[in-house]
Amino acid sequence: MIVAGVDVGSTTTKAVILDGDTIRAAVIEESGPMPGETARRVFARALASAGLREADVPVVATTGYGRRLVDMGGLVMTEIKACAQGVLFRPAPDGPIRTIIDVGGQDTKVIALNDSGEIEDFSMNDKCAAGTGRFLEVLASKLGLSYKAFVEHALSCDTTIQMNSTCAVFAESEVVGLLARNVSKAEIAAAAHNAIAQRIASMVRRVGQRGGYCFVGGGALNRALVRSLQNTLGDPIYVPENAQLVVALGAAVGARRRLGEITGRGRCPADDAEIHR
Amino acid sequence: MLVFRIVDPVLRFAEPLTSPILALGMALLVPFLVQRRLRPWRLAGALLAAVACFFVAYRLACTRPAAARWLAAMNTPLAAVFVIVIMPAIYLPPGRVRRAFLAVPAVILVLAGLSVLDAYRSVPPTDAGFHWFLIRPAWLMGGVASLLVLVRPVLNLARFRFAVRLTCLLVLVYGGFAFRKDYDDYRAMLARRKQATPGIMNVSQAVPVLQEEWRMTYLPSAPCRFAADGGYVQGCVLEMGQRIAQVDYAAALRRDPAATSALGVLGGAAVLFLVMCFVGARWFCGWVCPLSGLGGVLDWLRRRTGLYHLKPRGMLKRALMVAGLALALSMLVAAAAGAPYVGGVGRVGNYRVPEYPFCKICPGQQVCPVASGGPAAYAGLPTRDWGYGFYRYACLALLVLFIFGFLVFRRLWCMMCPMGMVLGIFNRGALFRMVKEPLKCNRCGVCAEVCPMGIDTVRSEMQSADVGTFDCVLCMRCVDMCPRDGCLAVEHGGVRVAESRFSARR
Amino acid sequence: MSSQFDARYRVSPTRAETAALRRRAEIVVASQRESLERIPRRPSNIAVFERWVESPPDDPAHPLVGYFCNMIPTELISAMGARPVRLGCGNPALVAPGEEVLAGEICPLAKSSFAQFMDAGSVASRCRALVVAASCDAKRKLAEVLDDFVPTFVLNLPPEQDANRYSSMVAGELERMARFLSDRLGTALSRRALRRCIDEGQRRTGLVRELQSVRSKRPGVLSIRDLFLIVQSAWRGVDTSAWLDETRKVLEEVRSCDPMDLDLRPRLVLTGAPMIWPNFKVLALIEESGADVVADTLCSGAQGLFDAVVYEETSRSALLRALAARYIFASACPCFISQGTRISRVLDLVQESGADGVVNYGLRLCQLFDIETYRLQRVLRERRIPFMNLRTDYSLEDTEQLRVRFEAFLETLGERR
């Protein structure tokens, strides 16, 4: 059962090809201004890397902000459901996952799961940059650092400085003020990460804090953010491998289930293996 | 008439049906069986079996003369009418069986009419002409109940209530004129009316029509015997209470025959009364009581003028209740203490006590004679020499309260009526239940607005489904007016007899 | 009757440039009409309702009296020979002009409703008088401002919905309202006219209940947006018998409708803040995402006509109290301590209609509905009824964000079925 999932995000587009329980291919690319074209290109690259043709993949699921902009003739699902399915694809090492935190380039999601792995509640912040990757990018550029360097700076120190602004625009002015007071760039970077972590933590509390944290999305690759979040929430956070691909993977899982329904073979045994409790 | 040559023996055989013990038994058994949702034939079979058992037990008990007297003392045709006509009308679900059942009240109504014609046969040819309805009590009750049951399907709840209230008012207030047992009885009534109008203190001497030998039929309804010529049915709880207070218990213990027989009559009446309370609770206040019927006429006058009514506050209601209870109890005490009564007069020291002290202050005694016989029938207030003027002034006060209360307050008298209070005890825990579905309530307060007793519980109760209260006269205006379907309902023995259905009215 | 407002500091009404205003408003209406046209099954006479909801027909014999809020007893206005027209505005194009004159952080309904008055030719400006219920802070202060434009009366509401305690107070306020209208219109309130209007209102309720019961089982026969158009046009100064006739036609049509696939979509109960034409963004979103609203508790929806005025006595006081009972004490508006009424209604509707979930529509900047969501959410969660809160304002820019949330909610419903 070969299926594919394409996550057409606002910053990056991802495609995953799933064969039963194995990931055959995974591709990430910057979205650019034409998400439809990008999605098709990314899918083609994924097919090529897996050595398959389009006809080999009966069901393609699209998700993400541009899910309806691309007609791939398959399933359409929201990134919330896809994220939950992708996270539950492999069992977590430290016990059941109850809360998923997805920090993307332009939005942040917190998804609360119940004991059976069903989505119980979710909270999205997609209207403002606070708490998203965009916030850090803006501040990095204000400090004159590359994003990578910004993260390294944050990791190198522990700070007690509080940034007051969560709004990216106001935070820029606050950074200027801090620099003028001779606060080091490392401290500012660390404080910025803590500010985001606070913001995310309040989103977590809104859906009901319940432990079992899993961190995915582009933001999960930022080790400084992982550290800040762990300190703020007080519980260990599991970052799965391929954290950035989780949503596309979840879309592929959904496609697999649909394929099972269509072919009448019902759920494939691998489907049941998803929910590891 | 031929038909009565067949019917009369059947009625004699069916005498056990007139026992309130059977009525009580059926009132408990039928709801129980209905809740079990038996198939119609099984249900009918079970009921017939129960009735047959009772017949056998009754006949066996009647082989002992003492038991026979006691049993006979309680019997009333009303119990039979209840079991045969009223209970099926309430408990039969709609369907073929119910439609078939409607033949029963129809036949009874026809037979009641025929019994009138039959009674006319006893009129001698020299006195040919119209002599009102010569009808025995059993046929009267059966006929009225059957008529109302037959009329129910074509009337909505409000109109049906009006029909029942009007019928009861007419029968209970004017019945004394219009319904007589037979031609001799009718002539005796005319002879009595030719005498001088009895004064206020001998009104009780008017012969009660339903006295057959030593037995009287007690109904928990006012007026008692103060409608013209004693009315056709009689007996308010206080009349019974006063009689019970006036029995010479010492003599009864000595097995004095007069005292024992009085005790027997009253015992029977008390049992009947309790059964009726259990079955009907305060529904009688809302639908039957002619005092409230007369009050309803005053209420109608007020509505015609476009004036709003006054609402009694909690304090006023409580004060009235206490006053009513106090008056009732003190009058009962006076009745007991004033014995023995000679010529209707008793004494407690220098204090002259009339034979039925409460009746002398009851507004019913003032209002009903006028209602039935016109202003000429007015018997006047008690004179000042009774109880140092207490009876005169108390009577005046209650009369004013009665008229003013119904004219301005909707049902102020009912809040102090001792009869109503006794019935009110049975409003919770007996067969009638007022139920509410709080999820459907929008708290609009229309129920409280239309309630003539000023009850707020129906509106404000939001947790439990049981909203029965002591005050409630089961007039069902709240159920009728409630704009939310299925929110309020009245149940009798677990069966819904009324439910709020705004949508069905349009 | 002395005015409720202080006459010393009146200012001349602020007017705006109307041509651009009207053009922008019409663009919004056109776009909503376009989305309406995509509804697969519509009643054949729906165009009548669309016309009515936009502008009331002309009738010089019966002047227009504008009102805000579902709690104003329209029968009282009709009985005095005027035509009540509800002026709450749902057009996002009017929010910005309103904001420029008033303040920004107030509810969009207040801002856009105010902006109507800046156009001297609008329906709002042509009203002979205004009646505003003092339900929320925004309305109360808005009434004070609007008194400079059109003579306004503020109907004070009781602090609690306790009919026992406040029935007389409300009856007194309604008398005051009658006196105000009498001064403005030159007519007097007669009991007979009031009874006639109440009886007409009862017929309206009967029709809406029947429509509701058909839709509850088969929501596909009539879109929730069309139902809202029908209901809202009843409040737009339309002759009641004309409205009854047209609605009866709709009822007959939907009753004889064939079964359709649309009847099998997820069924939702909608609760929350008013949604007034053309603010049908959320309704369109729900239906286009593949679900149906089978029942609602909105004062601007079927719930607004669901309750009827019932009276027993016909004295003036009794009739006014009957109006108070239905309009004030039965209201589920959060301006009272009224969560119980609203939650009961939601639970009852979910039970009756077998709905799959509840959607709460919160209007941004309305504190009342926001805080009510606290208890509503928890009660529904306790009873394991799926719940979704959609919090938005009039602007159309967040449609996609709402869509992804709502689709995710539908997906969770899909898992449970």
Considering residues with a beta carbon less than 8 A from a beta carbon on another chain, report the largest interface and each chain's count. B-C, 29 and 35 residues
Number of strands of chain B: 7
What structural category do the secondary elements of chain B indicate?
mainly alpha
Based on CA atoms alone, the radius of gyration of chain B comes out at 23 Å
Unreliable spans of chain B are 204-215, 218-223
Write the H/E string of chain C, N to C. Answer: HHEHEHHEHEHHHHEHEHHHEHEH
Distance between the ends of chain B: 48 Å
- Main β-sheet description of chain C: 4 strands, parallel
Spans of chain C with pLDDT under 50 lasting ≥5 residues?
none
Helix content of chain B: 55-70%
Into which percentage range does the β-strand content of chain C fall?
5-15%
Proportion of residues in β-strands of chain B: 5-15%
What's the assembly state of these chains? heterotrimer
Strands in their spatial order, largest beta sheet of chain B: 5-6-7
Strands of chain C, total number: 8
Give the strand order of the largest sheet of chain C, numbering strands 1, 2, ... along the chain. 2-1-3-4
Domain count of chain B: the total is 3
Mean pLDDT of chain B: 85
> Judging from the principal axes of the Cα atoms, what is the shape of chain C?
globular
Shape of chain B: globular
Please tell me about this protein's structure.
The complex is a heterotrimer of chains A (277), B (506) and C (417). With 277 residues, chain A is of the alpha/beta class. Chain A is built from 9 helices and 10 strands. The longest helix of chain A has 22 residues, at 185-206. The radius of gyration of chain A is 19 Å and the shape is globular. With 506 residues, chain B is mainly alpha-helical. In chain B, helix 5 runs parallel beside helix 8 and helix 11 (237-246) packs parallel to helix 16 (314-337). Chain B is 58% helix and 5% strand. In chain B, a hairpin with a 2-residue loop joins strand 3 (345-348) and strand 4. The model of chain B is unreliable at 204-215 and 218-223 (pLDDT under 50). Chain B is built from 24 helices and 7 strands. By secondary structure, chain C is α/β, with parallel strands linked by helices. Chain C has one domain. Chain C contains 16 helices and 8 strands. Chain C has helices spanning 18-37, 46-54, 74-79, 95-101, 108-117, 137-146, 163-185, 191-217, 224-233, 240-255, 281-288, 303-306, 316-329, 339-353, 367-382, 399-416, and strands spanning 64-68, 83-86, 129-133, 152-155, 267-272, 292-296, 357-363, 387-392. In chain C, the strands form 2 sheets. Chain C has a 4-stranded parallel sheet with strand order 2-1-3-4, sandwiched between helices. In chain C, strands 6-5-7-8 form a 4-stranded parallel sheet, with helices on both faces. In chain C, strand 7, helix 15 (367-382) and strand 8 form a beta-alpha-beta unit. In chain C, helix 2 crosses helix 9 (224-233), helix 4 packs across helix 5 and helix 11 packs across helix 16. Chain C starts with 17 loop residues before the first helix and ends with a helix. The mean pLDDT of chain C is 93. Classes of the chains: A alpha/beta (277), B mainly alpha (506), C alpha/beta (417). Chains in contact: A-C, B-C. The B-C interface holds B 303, 306-309, 438-446, 448-450, 456, 459-460, 462, 477, 481-484, 502-503, 506 and C 161, 163-164, 167, 191, 202-203, 205-206, 209-210, 307-308, 310, 312-318, 321-322, 325-326, 329-330, 332, 340-341, 344-345, 347-348, 351.
